[in-house]
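Final report, Chapter 2: Outcomes

The project's central promise was a pipeline that accepts a single protein chain and returns its three-dimensional structure in a standardized token representation, suitable for archiving and comparison. That pipeline is now operational. To close this chapter, we reproduce one record exactly as it appears in the project archive, with the input sequence first and the structure output second.
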Amino acid sequence: MGEKKKVLKMLIGIFLIAIIVCIGVSYNQSSKTINKNINIDKSINDIKKNTFNETSKGSDTKPEKIAYITIDDGPSKYTSQILDILDSNNVKGTFFMLNNNMILHKEEVNRMIKEGHGVGFHGVSHDIKELYKTETSSLEEFETCNKTLYDICGKNSKLIRLPYGSKPYTPQENYDSLIKNDYLIWDWTLDTQDWKSSTDQIVSNILYYGREREEIVILMHEKEQTVNALNDTIKILKERGYTILPITESISPKNFWIGNTNS
């Protein structure tokens, strides 16, 4: 009888030990799962936090000094060279184009679009007597340009530059008509006078008139001397800390009517 009791106690002891071991294993597994979940959640939160910080940094980042290189009167026989120079310097320009020139140089227009340059219009006639013949004649010219651009590449633009600038020639009625139809009128803050200057004079104008400005809109034209001065112009701007960007429709325009050019 005494032996039976001993065996029974031994069996009970083994059973209790087995229960304790099972509880311990189960607890360890649960702890691991909980810790694993905590670590996963922590990693996800860290990723979200880092992503938010990077996004925030990106959205708040704005260059301290900005330059817009704008080129009027094209496209022309010089456009491909201009695009090559911009590409070799890894910068984008903005082209204000004449309607008939777009028709004559469709390949260059498509290349501008493909390579991410800003594109806008400079009118049809380039003649202020025609441009402002009626209260809506200027609007009609830019609507014609827009149709031409769409026919060439399926794109539209609201960026325009009025021939000879928006002042003093533009009548109030014409200006109001363009604004009412959402056109964004751009003038300039630095006139290189390249249409009458040598290559050296163009570079000198950039050096002198481009000093101590946080943002500049440079006026150039599709001329041989401009092509020859463009590389040095870009070099000067970069050395002075400018980020060279294309004009887009999301940027508030600078023009003589608004009075934000200080030209």
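Archive annotation: DSSP finds nine helices and eight strands in the chain.
This record, like all others produced under the grant, will remain available to the consortium after the project formally closes.
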